[in-house]
């Protein structure tokens, strides 16, 4: 199923306008071209994109900083949720540090400039780059021929 949003762009545009097939391609292209990610207070779309780039960092797909502009404590509840997930061992303590947090734009930009990944990656980046996140029939997957499961469910994971 494809959705088509036909939008007329009026006025001056900044940067390049690029047509893409779908939202997944849009996010992947933005991620490829970005030096960092910054989430401002927002709704479901912002939250979905924020969590996706955090997950991509944890998986080793990118090592770019992910900034959260916590204006007037807007994201405090989300941060408490993440801290609880660390406490319950759903998120590793080092992965919790993927998020760079600040309450002002200047402070956030300064912290993003100093960012250095401290988390362990779940999957080496090379595996993701082999086929640009697509299935590879010629790839050898350990355990597949032996009939062993290749996806291990973790506590709290729905398959």
From TrEMBL:
Keyword Hydrolase belongs to the record: yes
Enzyme nomenclature, EC number: 3.2.2.n1
Keyword Hydrolase tagged: yes
Reactions it catalyzes: 9-ribosyl-trans-zeatin 5'-phosphate + H2O = trans-zeatin + D-ribose 5-phosphate; N(6)-(dimethylallyl)adenosine 5'-phosphate + H2O = N(6)-dimethylallyladenine + D-ribose 5-phosphate
Alphabetized GO MF terms: hydrolase activity, hydrolyzing N-glycosyl compounds
Signal peptide: none
Transmembrane segments: none
Enzyme class (EC, first level): hydrolase
Keyword field: Cytokinin biosynthesis, Hydrolase
One GO cellular component, as annotated: nucleus
InterPro entries attached to this UniProt entry: LOG, LOG_fam
Any single GO BP term: cytokinin biosynthetic process
Role description: Cytokinin-activating enzyme working in the direct activation pathway. Phosphoribohydrolase that converts inactive cytokinin nucleotides to the biologically active free-base forms.
Family: Belongs to the LOG family.
UniProt cross-references to NCBIfam families, sorted A to Z: Rossman fold protein, TIGR00730 family
Name of the protein described by the UniProt record: Cytokinin riboside 5'-monophosphate phosphoribohydrolase
Species this protein is from: Panicum virgatum
């Amino acid at each position: 199923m494809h959705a088509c949003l036909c939008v007329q762009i009026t006025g001056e545009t900044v940067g390049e306008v690029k047509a893409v097939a779908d939202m997944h391609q849009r996010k992947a292209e933005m991620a490829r071209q970005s030096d960092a990610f910054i989430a401002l207070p927002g709704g479901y779309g912002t939250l979905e994109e924020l969590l996706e780039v955090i997950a991509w960092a944890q998986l080793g797909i990118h090592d770019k900083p992910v900034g959260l502009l916590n204006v007037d404590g807007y994201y405090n509840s989300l941060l408490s949720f993440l801290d609880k997930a660390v406490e319950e061992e759903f998120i590793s303590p080092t992965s919790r540090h993927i998020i760079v947090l600040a309450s002002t734009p200047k402070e956030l930009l300064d912290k993003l400039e100093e960012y250095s990944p401290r988390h362990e990656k779940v999957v080496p980046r090379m595996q993701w780059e082999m086929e640009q996140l697509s299935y590879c029939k010629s790839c050898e997957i350990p355990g597949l021929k032996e009939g062993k499961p290749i996806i291990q469910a973790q506590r709290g994971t729905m398959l």
